[in-house]
Amino acid sequence: MNKIINAPEAMISEMLEGYLCANPQLFERVPNTNGLVLKERKNKVAIVTGGGAGNEPWNIGYVGNGLADGVALGNVYAAPPARSIMNVTKAVNHQNGVLYLATNHAGDVLNFELAGELLQLEGIRTQSVFVSDDITSAAINKQEERRGVAGVAIVLKIAGAAADAGLNLDELVRVTRKANQNIRTLSVTTSPGYLPSTGEAMFDMEPGMIEFGMGFNGEPGILKTKLISADKIVDIMMDYLLADLLPAAGDEIAVFINGFGFTGLLELCIVNRRVKMVLDQKLLKTYDMFIDTLLAPQGTGGFSISLLPLDQELKCYYNYPAYSPFFRKKAL
Fold first, then answer.
1. Domains and their CATH numbers in the chain
2. Which tens digit of pLDDT belongs to each residue from 38-59?
């Protein structure tokens, strides 16, 4: 697979530079760091996110109004260094405390927690929430061990709204954890992605086969099968998701269909249609549905479905508008 880069060691810095060139009114680069922050520093609890590059727009696209205030980037599929996280934290308005919000992967957890401990010595208060929405990566009674995948988009959007509403750090953490504990995501992979540095496939897949729950780097999923119809794929995914979530009839559900880089809107709309049909059959109320590509692992084929039941508190923050050049959610 041909990739359009200059030099592998310059990819992340040059990506940030290009993004800033397109949006100079919104963002500024953190000096000597692969990170950026909003130019507008609001008087509220700040949110800093981050993770490895390679899944754009996660995570540079998650900085914006009603979203995060800053982001620290690692190399492709590598956690950001603790020093970068600290530099970004110092660049946002941290006087009211800082929420670290990242996906639940070992390197991210280690480096965000290390950064928080070091900043505590400098008088900067931080707390962390690591999104763990992938139902295939651990059992329900070990939810804290699950990977974080596309559900991070909804959790961060809720956290951003709650921060804008003026919640203090402890209350913001409570709301964010509540969203994380309730969200569920399942993916299906139809073709491998390709490393931007070499153009080589990240893993092998047999022609004509698909895999449910496969990790972005080829970690084993829960079910392999020959390619089947879109409706059958969705039915399998919804069976797993609803068995894990156990919603009650009448619950209001927000739905996010996340396309991977190689899967187009034509396919995603067909998927969304079937998701709505299944929810109707189960007597579940569809509060909102949106289709986007917000976590796209390097041209991988496939998609994920995220479901979040909304109570009145979460609905209030979900309804709040969010905007970045790569992530837009209108007010409801």
1. 8-181 (3.40.50.10440), 184-329 (3.30.1180.20)
2. 999 999 999 999 999 989 999 9
